[in-house]
Every structure is written in structure tokens, then in C-alpha cells.
What does this fold into?
Amino acid sequence: MRTMRSLLAGAFAATLLAAAPAVAQETELPNQKWSFENPFGTYDLAAAQRGFQIYSQVCSNCHSLQYLHYRDLSGIGLNAEQIKAIAAAVTVPDGTDDQGQPKDGPATPASQFRSPFPNVKAAAAMNGGGIPPDLSLIVNAREGGPNYVYGILTGYTDAPEGFKLGDGLYYNKMFPGHQIHMPQPLREGTVDYTDGTGNSLEQEAHDVVTFLSWAANPEAVERKQMGVRIVLFLVFLTGLTYAVKRKVWADVEH
Amino acid sequence: MVGLHKSEFSNPVINWIDTRLPVFTMIQKEYGEFPTPRNFNYFWNFGALAMVNLVIMIATGIFLAMNYQPNSELAFGSIQHIMRDVNYGWLLRYIHQNGASMFFIVTYIHIFRGLYYGSFKAPRELLWILGVVILIIMMATAFMGYVLPWGQMSYWGATVITNLFSAFPVVGPKIVTLLWGGFSVDNPTLNRFFSLHYLLPFLLVGVIFLHVIALHLTGSNNPLGIDVKSPQDTLPFHPYYTAKDSVGICVFLIVLSVLVFFAPNYLGDPNNFIPANPLQTPADIVPEWYFLPYYAILRSVPDKLTGVCLMFGSLLILFVLPWLDTSKVRSLRFRPVYRVTLFVWVVAVIILGMCGAHKPEGIWVTLSRVCTLYYFAQFLVILPILGKLERPLPLPESISHPVIGGRGGGPLPTGATAKPMEKA
It folds into this structure.
């Protein structure tokens, strides 16, 4: 038993170490409090809706969210009417017309989120060679997750003395190498919230990262709530099974 | 052997079938009455756990394959389709993804059990060899499975690992082209990996079947490593070990559930959330955690061919393990010196795993070299020599009479040892 425990501990330690970030962060990650971070956490829907507003007004000019459909917005608490209205206001490619020519039309809840650029080459050409990454999974795709994305959004400062900044690049203390193609997207007052929330840079960044975290893991709340029930059940089942095992073995010296 | 089987089952339907195809008798014999040493500890759960794990992987995998697109243009998106649009697709995928990690945890512990209690020694050499075959097939399956999501780490991992074969002289480059189905990792590679990823688990089922047949011929080893001498030493598999395995399965499911529901991407790499891009190499290409020790061995020497040979050698050496160990004593409970060296070996493997996760720079190079050296020295030097030099502790007379103290407990009063076997 003792050996088994130490072995499991060893294996666990090995996985911990293996999963540790391989690339050292140059700037320390911010450590924000997120509504969704602990095992029981849920998405702050008001923040996610504000974040969606920022995405629509700011981010979506350059960044796609291609793995989401408008119908998915029910996940941040929007109702069917709201989603229909949001989709209808967006123009997306809509098959072909009677002449066989591609045509555009209003999106429906079933449509994919509109992408700002038709393809990667167009995206690069419009952004000085930088390709704005798709944001569907951005929170999962970066070491540090939400804190990293928050760090980028709030990480714009003046380049330090003597730092040679490339053409069309901006200084960001969080970005590896500190030179980023993206101009500072959010500042204090970039959006006006309808719910009266203050629009400081920190608030805006926090809201949009909440939205993007939901976009990357829309199943997270359901998953964790299911997990609590399943783990509790399994713990009960383990106890029961162990009792059965004890009873079966009660008459055997071993 | 020609003729109908005389079935002893009273249920007429079962009896009818069993007379013509004695599967029920077989199950009864191999999983009901099967005489099993009475002194198993919980390490003996891990074979059953691996079996359960394989079933989970095949079951989830079949449903994932229904929604997955093995096409380099569509693969990444189809995974997102599974995660977002397929009913409980996220659950299937996260079980499959973390089930792979659990499969390796369980299998590595199962292998350690074999090493520690000498389960590879006569007469179980072939049982062990089949086990090594299972490990290798499992690794190939896992590697190809990791390529399927077609993320950055999938793509670059596939590129690095398949490129290893190019180190072999003459045939190397041809093997690589064959693996790729072209001149770089591309759509044909993904297609063939998907096909093989679906095929190999069933091959695995076949080899596991042989593994189990071999086990049921030799009978199980046990923590004392001594042979079963009388029916007093054994218990029928059911209900004793079905009950004990059930406890292990429940605990296994708890660990899997915690990973799946609360930390599904903990063991993964953020880079695999970025679609594969042949034009952009990630800063650090690391395999999944279960390959890290081998990856460290590969990178421990500057010469590619030597590294590749060492890496494959670290697995292949397991095939001849039964003949490298010169000691007749199986269980390391009675080999105090060798026990220490085995623990050092485990630590070396864990350190190798850490080395594999870091860039081969500075201390990590030295560490990986030292540990690689120890990895092989354990098998090629310590094992053959120590078997001759070490004086093992006295072995107990029998499983039911462990006359020697230690974890088996002192001599048992007669009568308390066991009720006589009703079946066996």
C-alpha cells in the first residue's frame, strides 16, 4: 500500500512538472479573479454580455469567432428574440443567387459568426502582415489562459528607452518579444455600457475576457455541475463497493 | 475433443448454448472459479483497470469517429463541432482525451507491478513479452490519436516523431515517405493515421486476449512471488477478486472524472488549440506527458541515429528482461538491494520525464544523460550481476504460511488460515 501511494504520488508529481509551462513568461501574468475559475464557478453572464458588446463593437473588426454560431449566445443568457435581432443585423455570405453568383444575406441564429476577412491572405494584407487570430479558442490556446489575454489587453505601454520597435508594431509588455501587430484595442471609455457599468480599461478587459473564456469553453458550467454530481455518486459507490469487498473477504484470513 | 460439451448449467437456454459452444463454462472456469492467489494487494487491480480503460476508449472513440473529419482542412473544425454542437460531444471527447492519459498511468503502474514482484520471470516470460507488445501498440495508437485534432502540437509532434525514422541508413527516408504518404506531414498522413488509430485498438484487443490466455495458463503471480502450492493458497476469482477489482474500478473512475469534469485540459498543451500551421513552428515541441521520458532519452545524445536507437532500445530491452534477471527470486520483498535500485530507476524515469518537458539546455542535458545511463545500466548491468551477488531474504514456505515476518504477517495459527476451497 505504502509503495503504491508513493508511486502514485510520484506519477502525479511527474505530470505536474510535465504540464508546467515550458516557456518562461517574460512579464509576470496578472492574477485576476474570474467568476468561472474554481470547480463550482459559473460565468458572470452580465460580464459576458458586456464582453460580447465589446467583441461586436471592437474585436470583430479584425478577429473572427468562427467556431461559434449566433444561437450559441443563449449560453450567455440572451433570449431567442435578442439572438434573432443580433443575427439579423449582420450580413453574411448566403449561398448563391438564381444566376449562381455568391450572394450575401442577413444572418440567422443558425449562422456562423461573421468573419471580418474572407481568408487568411486578405487578413494579412489588411493588417500589415499580422494575421489576427481567431478568438474562439484564444483563452485555451495561450499559456496562462484568461490572465494572459487580460494581460495583453492591459499590457500596452510606451516602449522603454532604447527599445527598437519594428515598423507597424506596438509595444506590449505581456506579449512574447514585446512587439505586437495589434494596435491597442481597448482604452478607458472605448465602449459605453448600457447597464451603467463603469468603462475603465480594466473593466472592459475583464468583461471581454469573461466573454472569450465562455466562447472557448461554453460547456464549462454544465461540465462542472455534472462533475460534482458524478464524483459525489462515485465516492458513494466506492464506499458501497468497499463495504461489499470487506463483507466478501470477512471470512478469509489474508 | 469432437463432440458436444457436457454442460452443468441448469437453465435450459444457457445449457443449450453451452452444450454447443461452452462459453458459459469458460467464463465460469476463468472468471468464476479461477484459482487466484489469496494475497493480492491493490497493485493487482491495474490489469483489470487497463481492460476497463480500453473499453472506455473504444466506446467513446467509436462515437467520436462518427463526427470527426479526417481531412486536414476540416479536422480541427470537426473537433470544435464535436465540442460545441454534438450532444454531449464535449463529454465523449474529454473522456477519450483524458482516458488516454489514464490508460498510460494505469499501464505504467501495471508494468511497475510486474517489475517489482518479478511477474516477468519463468514461467511468465511470454506473458510479459505480450505485455510489452501491448505497450508498444498502445503507444503507437496514442501517438496517432494525438495527431487527429490537427492542432499545432499534433502537426509538429507528428513531424518530429515520424522524422526520427529518417535516421536509419538506407531505408530511413523511404520509411518516412511511407508514413507521410507524401513528402511532408499532410492530408494523406492524417488519413492513414486515422485509419490506423481505428485499427490498432482492435489489434490491441487481440493481443490482450492472448495476454490473458497466457495469464490463465501460468496463473497469477503474487506479492510474495512464490508459487501456489496448495488450494489453501488460492481463492476463487469470484467473488473475492471481482469485489476487490470493483473497488479499484470505482477509484479509477473518480480520478478519471476529476480530470474530465474539472481539469480536462490540464494534461494537454495550449498549442493544440491553434490549428496546424506548417509555416509556423511552435517555440517548443513537446509530446504528451506519457512520452516525455522516451523523448528525453532520444535527446540525451547529440547524434540522431544513436538517440533514436536508444529510444527504441529503451522499449525493446523490456523484451529480453526475463533473461537479464539472473535471480530466481521474484518478489523484491526478498531482494532488499535490488529493491533500492528499482526505486532509483523509477526516480530516474520520472526525472527523464521532467527532462523531456524542458528544452535540452544546461542542467537538463546532464540530468537526461545520467538518467538514460542509469535506465540502461539497471537492465544491462545491475540486473544480471546483482542476481548473482545479492543474498535474498528467506522465502516463506507458502502463501498461506508466510513463516517469515514482513508485510505478509507472521505465522498464522492453523485453522485461521483459510477455509478449504469449495471449488477449484
